[in-house]
Amino acid sequence: LASGLLATTLLAGCSSADQNGTTMPGITPLPVSFELHEGAAPFRLTESTRIIVEGDAATAPELLAERLRAATGWEVPVVAAGSSAGSSASDIMIVVAPGEAPDGAAEGYTLEVDSDGARIGADTPAGAFWGTQSLRQLLPAAIERADATEPDGGWAAAAASVTDAPRFAYRAAMLDVARHFFPVEDVERYLDQLALLKLNVLHLHLTDDQGWRLEIPGRPELTGIGASTSVGGDGGGFYTADDYRRIVAYAADRQITVVPEIDLPGHTNAALSATPELNCDGVAPAPYEGVEVGFSSLCASPERAEVTDRFLADVLGTVASLTPGPYLHVGGDESLATSEADYLDLVRRITAAAAATGKTVIAWHEAGASTDLPEGTIGQYWNFVEPANDDEVANAVSFVEQGGALVMSPADVAYLDMKYVDDPQTALGRTVGLQWAKGPTTLDEAYAWEPTEILPGVGETQVLGIEAPLWTETVSRIEEVEFLVFPRVTAIAEIAWSPRPDGGERDHDAFFERVARLGERWDVLGVTYYPVRGVPWT
Ligand code: TNX
């Protein structure tokens, strides 16, 4: 750790270019330890570079090879260790074996880069994959290209030693595909960019008042009329079971777990409009294309119990069976159309149906009002860094009291759909985002909070992780999603991955410097981002 702090200090003090004109590298999120061997000869990719694999590194070697091949035009074969003569100075070794990761950390890795070669060591394929993402960030931004053009200075990576492992196990971004629908290709593009930041969870908000986005066998009406709308009449859409499987597989290849959310019992107008018998009065409401919240609910009445419970079992059973990951998110937020007693009854039945699938249940923190949560249910806190009132705190802490933990998403710092200061226009010529939390959110604010200091009794071991949600009431195209997400999601990724700084103070200048380095990569990748003030963009 000491060497990591040293390197951080060195990086912070440096201008972004050294005397050869090459850009000082940075790795985001900041590793536990990152030591640049200044003055030492760099590692260089050459026409004969190979990726040599020992142990099971899953997709990490091939995905790295694809990137290097596209950028360099070279062959970059992936070979098994021992199948050829020893490694040479331009090779990349990836070793997955017990004892390789620091302290045996499940997602940890070591990375050694110098003129004798590059080597990644990890205990798991996940660790190996995160190691390749760090190596990628040590190479010039041109490594993100696909036109085989060597940059000035060649394909060099500064000599460095990295020892790294994440602080939190759950490092998430959420995409709301209900208010506006985003096709599989958009989600894959999003996953690519999350992987670069070592985020390992994609929470998909699959249903809301404005749309139902996942095919459920035997219930075609849900993806019929239920998927026909979105906010503002921008058209509908949904994922077939195969589409969803493609997303899950693409994510898994990048060590990302998909957490599906079916938002219940509120935020259900799409389901109610498609299924008359779910309504207390048996009458389906019209589809909804506005942006109000809190007006819809499943029916708690005993006369609807059978049909409602069958719906819950069908839907949650299907989603669970399509999802290899351990989690199932059942919403629970903003159920303002039910009495407290009805809400508690519905939450009990919903979470029980979800737990019956064998998954670990996740719910927005309001659901902590229930004392009947299945053992280990995870709460997602979305109130503010300074909680607005005692109820928000009590509901959130209730998950811990019932044997669970929390994912922290305080809206005033982690909500990516909050506006930027200056309210800039997107390429489509409109301003986007909301400001109900605490007004616009700056990159500084997104970076300047500590997840273990928000709720009493919710410290390091009760925080499962951090999530940055992106609600899509105001954005309909993936470019606009990216505009809101980048660069602010980097702050969330770093709080989730990097060690809590000594003394608690984060180094904003050094962080902004590294965000500028990411900006060079996003430029090459064609990722849309808003060049916020304060970052030394180049
Ligand atoms: C609150 S956060 C909501 C969403 C909105 C979002 C907009 C939460 C659990 N519910 O329904 O889309 O605010 O920022």
Automatic annotation (TrEMBL):
Keyword Repeat belongs to the record: no
Domain Beta-hexosaminidase bacterial type N-terminal: 25-165
Keyword Signal: yes
Gene Ontology annotations for the cellular component aspect, listed alphabetically: membrane
Record-linked InterPro entries: Beta_hexosaminidase_sua/sub, GH, Glyco_hydro_20_cat, Hex-like_dom2, HEX_bac_N
One GO BP: glycosaminoglycan metabolic process
Glycoside hydrolase family 20 catalytic domain location: 168-335, 347-499
Keyword field: Glycosidase, Hydrolase, Signal
Active site: E334
Coiled-coil residue spans: none
Protein family (similarity comment): Belongs to the glycosyl hydrolase 20 family.
UniProt name for this protein: beta-N-acetylhexosaminidase
